[in-house]
Structures are given as C-alpha cells and as structure tokens.
Design goal:
The chain is mostly helical. Helices cover 75% and strands 1% of the residues.
Length: 325
C-alpha cells in the first residue's frame, strides 16, 4: 500500500508539472481526462467486479452535476463541499436504484439503467429549480491569489480534477484489492456459489451499485466544474455509451488501463473536428462521427481485446517467451 501511495504521489506531481507547462486547451483536455478516469473507474467497479451492467452512468453523472450546481448556486456552499454532497447524494440514489434492481441481471438491468439515461434529462426539464433546458450556471470562483496572477482558471480546474482522480483511483485500487473486491469478483463469477459460501448477494450488489453511483456523481460534479454549467444537453445518452466503450477499451476487469480509455474519449472529438475540417467543416460530420467512432471502437475492442490491452500484451509476451524457450 505504501508503494502504491508513493506511486500516486509521484504521478500527481508529474501531472501538475505538465499542467503548468502546456497551453490552455491541453490543460482543459487534461481536466476532461481526469473526469473520465473517475467515471470509467466507476463502471469497472460495477461491471468488471460485481458483474452488473449499467448503460446509464451518464444519467448518474448528471444527477451528481445537478446536486453540485444546486449546492453552489442556490445554497452558496463551498466547492469542495458540493463535490462531497454530489458523491454522497448520488451514492444514496444509486443505492435505492440498486436495491430496486438487485433482482435484475444481464439485459434486464442494462435496460433499466438505459431507461434512466433516456428519461432523466427529460425529467430535469420539468422542474424550474433545475433551470430547464438552459440548466444552471455554476460559478467556480477564481483560483487562490497565492498561486499568482498568471495561474489561469483552467489550470485551477486541472489541479482540482487531477487531485480528485488520483485520490479516487487510490481509494478504488485499495478497495478492489480488499475483501469487498474479492466478494464482488465471486459474485461476478457465480453468484449462486457465492451465496452458498455465505455471501449476502443482494446486499453486496447494492453496495457495489451505490459506490459506483457515488463515483459517477463525483465525476459529473467535476465535469460541471470544467464547463461551468449543468443542463440536460451536457449529459446526452451518447455519454453513457462512450463511458462503457472507454471501460471496455481500458479493460473492464482491471484499473490499469483506465487512463487509456479516458484519453481515447477525449481524442475522439478532436479526430471528428479534424475530419470535418477536411470536408469543409461539415456540421453533420462533426455531430455524427464521434458516435460512429465510439461504436466502431467498441466493436473492435470486443473482438480483439475483450479483457483490455494490458492482458493482450501480457498474453503476447508470454507467448513470445514460450516460443523462445
């Protein structure tokens, strides 16, 4: 555990140094990567370890984003407290949803969470307190004056999101290596056998769903921080599918590739913009190409690296050693 902590501290220091030496666009992209790291990690916890399939994590991110925005805009609470509340309230909401869906599995659970992703944005439009289609503006405030006048707001966002991602991943890596992680893996492999061994399957599924939802809510709050607003359009249905794709590309059963999945999700819109500019900046290409790229990437990942690139590289290395021996 000490070695892992030192590794995370060293990684955080390197990332903060890099963030201080790149332009504003790259800093913003770095903050987006940190948000996706947390969101993808939440899916790995839920699907890769407990075996529950969710197609609605974008909606859970929206839930956390609205909680954070309401805390700051309406209650004038500190930003850090808004993040805590976003994770806590979304975790409780996820626990209630998980309790209701504890008896569901496979496509039934996936369909339930998909319905949540479809319906929640429309539901948000019905309440004036949530700002309707325009949403709620979140004023994150200026960076601390002690950081200097040249320290931009986007750098401040990068620092906050990166720190949150590192702390989250450190906590998640430890809990997945604990008895809870082992219990969830047993549930994923064979829930009947786990129940015969004394595991309360329903309780463990609800716990996994609640923790995963809390992480998604935190990711949503951080996303709202980076874009300074929360609205239904900020959390489309395509976001849920993109997160699943990022988790599959990362390796659904392991956290080691989570950065790769997050980077790919940030790169895809840039690729779409680059292709669109070659064809006269077509709005149709810009709007449809990211979805097509995500779909194609998901299919290729399932076909060629279903357990992630890390396991694929390990298999190729083992095969090479076998042949050389």
């Amino acid at each position: 555990m000490r070695k892992r902590l030192l590794l995370f501290i060293a990684l955080g220091w390197v990332l903060l140094l890099i963030g201080d030496r790149v332009d504003e666009l790259r800093v913003y992209q770095g903050a987006s990567i940190a948000v996706y790291v947390i969101a993808i990690g939440s899916i790995i916890l839920l699907t890769g370890y407990s075996g529950q399939i969710s197609l609605g994590h974008g909606a859970l991110m929206a839930f956390g984003g609205y909680v954070a925005a309401l805390c700051v805009a309406n209650a004038s609470l500190p930003l850090w407290f808004a993040f805590v509340m976003a994770a806590l309230v979304t975790g409780i909401f996820g626990g209630i949803l998980g309790f209701a869906a504890a008896r569901l599995s496979g496509p039934y659970l996936a369909g339930t969470t998909l319905a949540l992703a479809v319906g929640l944005p429309s539901l948000a439009n019905q309440f004036s307190i949530l700002g309707g289609e325009q949403g709620i503006y979140l004023d994150p405030g200026l960076p601390p004056a002690s950081l200097g006048e040249s320290f931009s707001q986007y750098k401040w966002f990068f620092w906050i999101t990166t720190l949150a991602a590192l702390i989250t991943m450190f906590w998640l890596a430890n809990i997945l290596q604990s008895k809870y992680g082992r219990t969830w893996r047993a549930l994923r492999s064979n829930d009947v056998a786990a129940q015969l061994c004394g595991v309360h399957t329903g309780r463990q599924k609800v716990l996994a769903f609640s923790l995963s939802s809390g992480l998604a809510g935190l990711a949503g709050a951080l996303l709202v921080l980076t874009i300074s607003t929360v609205s239904p359009s900020a959390f489309p249905l395509s976001l849920s599918f993109a997160l699943v794709t990022g988790a599959v590309v990362s390796g659904i059963y392991d956290l080691k590739g989570v950065m790769l999945g997050a980077v790919i999700l940030v790169i895809i819109p840039e690729v779409a913009d680059s292709v669109a500019s070659r064809f006269g900046d077509s709005l149709k290409i810009t709007s449809t190409l990211p979805g097509l790229l995500v779909s194609a990437l998901l299919i290729l990942a399932v076909l060629f690296t279903p357990n992630g690139p890390g396991e694929k590289l390990h298999h190729l290395r083992h095969k090479r050693k076998t042949h050389s021996g």
